[in-house]
Design a protein that fits this description.
Blueprint: E1 9-18, E2 21-30, H1 36-52, H2 59-70, E3 74-77, E4 80-83, E5 85-86, E6 91-95, E7 105-107, E8 122-124, E9 129-130, E10 145-147, H3 159-172, E11 198-200
Antiparallel strand pairs: 1-2, 3-4, 5-9, 6-7, 6-8, 10-11
Helix pairs in contact: 1-2
């Protein structure tokens, strides 16, 4: 059992899969008033992204609106006023059938991407704010995988690798967000790094 403390921050992330569309929604809770302005900044940036999104909107410009909103906030931590920064290497994205991260990204920092949102497309507007460097550094174990739609065919020589791939294919189908090591019924996970069919979700 995990007990939350007064200084803890909790992210609640809920996913759903309906007729091939894989979506999630998340919100953050804090019990310390110190972080309320940070949460307010992130929510306001999300609201801006949703409001400004639409047919023919350029993704680079949309990112600028999100950035401007996020950076209009400050947070006071231990008597020091800190600017809120958007996380520049995280993004929202288009959602394709059976592909949670489609081919288009909605960055959180203004950029030169002239790609437009098009009629009939679905997008996840995801915003992440920080009083730190404004970048996420990947570390630790990978726990979520998804099928790569564009993965090249790689012939597998080992019977154990073929068996593992078959088990993963059967178990995961095309849905991301599953801890592979706990869902392939005891198959060795040593081959996961050599199978290009999957990518970190």
């Amino acid at each position: 059992m995990i007990l939350l403390g007064e200084k803890d921050v909790l992210k609640v992330d809920i996913g759903v899969h309906v007729k091939g569309r894989i979506c999630d929604s998340a919100f953050t809770l804090t019990f310390d008033p110190t972080y309320e302005k940070l949460l307010e900044a992130v929510k306001a940036a999300t609201d801006t992204g949703v409001r400004e999104a639409g047919i023919d909107v350029r993704l680079g410009e949309l990112a600028g609106y999100i950035q401007e909103t996020m950076e209009s906030y400050e947070v006071e931590v231990n008597g020091k006023v800190l600017p809120v920064k958007p996380i520049e290497n995280l993004s929202g994205h288009s959602i394709n059938l059976y592909q949670i991260h489609g081919g288009k990204s909605v960055l959180l920092v203004k950029n030169e991407d002239d790609t437009k949102m098009e009629e009939g497309e679905y997008f996840a507007i995801e915003t992440f704010g920080s009083t730190g460097r404004g970048k996420v550094m990947e570390q630790g174990d990978v726990s979520h995988y998804a099928r790569r739609v564009d993965a090249p065919h790689v012939p597998l020589r080992l019977t154990s690798a073929k068996s593992l791939l078959k088990s993963i294919t059967k178990t995961l189908a095309r849905c991301p967000g599953v801890d592979v090591t706990s869902n392939v019924r005891g198959k060795a996970n040593i081959f996961l790094h050599s199978i290009t069919w999957f990518r970190k979700a």
